[in-house]
């Protein structure tokens, strides 16, 4: 991918392409970056921009590898230290391994005021070199618990796409004939526009002069906006939609010299809005200290701290901040550098591509919260001890380092975030074997090529190997002292015997690094029941979030529910698509039905029926076998038959369905209120005539795409051969049906075709088909009674799966006059691909690992931070977690973290249990449930007799089961109120058990 003419390697970059777009990808492939400084922050930025796919990176550094570097630079090894290798030489090959498309070279020249720096002009982006620097440059620094980023992209920097958000079609309900014209959205749906943005109008009926015009928006409400003068236009009739235009934006930057005295800063933590300017002043004083003393302040040196404080006398700076900065400046907090490195790397990509709004112009982040419990700690705690943790020790002290070493962490998922978390664990020394620590990781997935773009622990030779075991081996390479145990399991109810209470009680912290929401909810429930902290995070493109869940302090992941994903109504998919997402989902459903559902149903049927003759002889109802017999009779045995089937499918889906729809609902059909049936968002279909010479090209593809891919089932068949076969296909004469039921109910669900009743005529037809299959094809058993279901695989470009969906979607889009999507967009929607990029992943993992330090340090609630960021805008928002809610029953407070306990014995009855709850907690239990089994519900017949039964007999526990968690409801305080749910009641089967 060295030049624009070369194709983008989609198998590697597919997830990133959805974030950056192809134009930005091509710009990166022609851009060079100069990166000076191979400390922890520098190597983080190098990793991210090489994974992204720039043309070339020059790594610059003048220092020799030291033991200290092992705690911050994950590409330096012990051998590099012992051999006194230059840092830049040690990391070069390991950085280059990340991406074969990127040329990585090195420089160890001294760059100072005596150096001719004009060579830097050949780079599109660089750092730290003032007037001689490239047109766009960034300066990044990490000093202990404080980090900063500064951007200067010049006087006029054009941003092609400030937000990166995909424009959505906004359907119109009405447009007034006035000055200004007021546009109201369909069904009062929010438009999401901002005043000053521009929109384009399409398919407006009546006020047709608006179509194709660009109008500036003035927002009136979430559901309406004003445009230009429409008073002289024709009256609005119906229909139409607008979509947002991406308007380039010019950003202007001030020089570093001007910004030093009047900084423009981003404020990440609104609970301390003064922090960025305070850190700005403190770090400028630190710069002065370095210039005057040619060094950083010494660790724990009170005299140096006072000198630094004196340098801030002219501005009002928090003295505690300055002293903390002085004490930790030589140190490093790896998660903090990872977080800011992710943000800085994204700014590098913005500088190269003009994609997304750049940082203007300073970003400061601190980890002061991790220092709060350390003020009374002896100064000796922070002094170097000659190992890889000296940099971290300078910031958090020896005792907290030891707690990290002893930590036992369970991490679910070893994908992008998982790889980044393992890097942070390695640098922090989390889970050392000599300290009886442990990192247990689990992931059932295998490594794919598309993973390599952001899951930086994996290389091409790892493809199709286990993620968890490969990640464990790569982690040992960074820090051989870790104890990493790799599993290949999903974490779900099916693996509860492995990840049981005993397992969770052994772990100190749980980390989720996966996409699946249901899996995260399950892990959260296990953490709550076992009183374990959970660190959760996720990314989508340039967006990321983190959530810290601490027992008895915060709410849990399950305490809040995301809004359900909006489903497309079945009638819309079947008959009334209005946007490209509808046609893509329709095509995806057709794939699933034809290549997965029907073959699976077919196989299942013949597994239960030995042969077709047996089915006939049995004389059983054909209701369950009607579809199977149709498949058996129509199943092609030759390529020519496949093509014939495809031709008939084309006729059915893209011509006859449209003709039937127009027959049932002619264009002049009106609703009961007199309005037209066919008005926005409903689009009337236009039948497509089959023409092999009309390839229906799809934007973004050079090759004919839609129609040919519907038929090109074998590369051995030429266009002439296919044309010849198609000419022999007999197309039955079409006549519309008058009694076809076409649903317009948006609440109706898709019917189950297998369970739909079959009439006697269809049964007779099925019997005839089955007899024909036996007599003409001699089908009795064997291969003919087995099909090969094709699970949709989006990342294999040779299997034709995405091609089928793209072709079918584009054809249906033509039927309904919808703008088709290119193959890339179709693949993303059909495959439900989550856009991803290494910068956001690195940032989110760094922020999570920072919270891990706080958890280990047993911090107070006020110290913890959740985060949401969008690196595209950019915005970073740090907030306190949601504080745990307390519920009161009869003067007893409890939360989601509480679990009441009752100790029983072999003869302990249900009545004994209820009496024990009443006596211990002073509340009257009214109902007892175990999972989905109701043990005691007074209104249920016969349940009063259960009071005499033992808990053993009622629950029937396995021999190794020590306890069960029961759901108990309690009597309300007022007669007219419902029963009150309490916390789980953990019943131990033996009083000898220790809760």
Automatic annotation (TrEMBL):
Family membership noted in the UniProt record: Belongs to the ubiquitin-activating E1 family.
Record-given protein name: Ubiquitin-like modifier-activating enzyme 6
Span of domain Ubiquitin-activating enzyme E1 C-terminal: 864-985
Gene coding for it: uba6
Pathway(s) it belongs to: Protein modification; protein ubiquitination
Assembly: Forms a thioester with UBD in cells stimulated with tumor necrosis factor-alpha (TNFa) and interferon-gamma (IFNg).
EC class: ligase
Gene Ontology molecular function: any one: FAT10 activating enzyme activity
Catalytic reaction annotation: ATP + ubiquitin + [E1 ubiquitin-activating enzyme]-L-cysteine = AMP + diphosphate + S-ubiquitinyl-[E1 ubiquitin-activating enzyme]-L-cysteine
Gene3D superfamilies xrefs: NAD(P)-binding Rossmann-like Domain (3.40.50.720), Ubiquitin-activating enzyme E1, FCCH domain (2.40.30.180), Ubiquitin-activating enzyme E1, inactive adenylation domain, subdomain 2 (3.40.50.12550), Ubiquitin-activating enzyme E1, SCCH domain (1.10.10.2660), Ubiquitin-activating enzyme E1, UFD domain (3.10.290.60)
SUPFAM superfamilies: Activating enzymes of the ubiquitin-like proteins
Organism: Takifugu rubripes
Gene Ontology CC annotations of this record: cytoplasm; SUMO activating enzyme complex
Pfam families documented for this protein: E1_4HB, E1_FCCH, E1_UFD, ThiF, UBA_E1_SCCH
Domain of life: Eukaryota
Keywords associated with the record: Acetylation, ATP-binding, Ligase, Magnesium, Metal-binding, Nucleotide-binding, Phosphoprotein, Ubl conjugation pathway
EC number, as in UniProt: 6.2.1.45
CDD domains for this protein: Ube1_repeat1, Ube1_repeat2
Entry's Gene Ontology BP terms: protein sumoylation; ubiquitin-dependent protein catabolic process
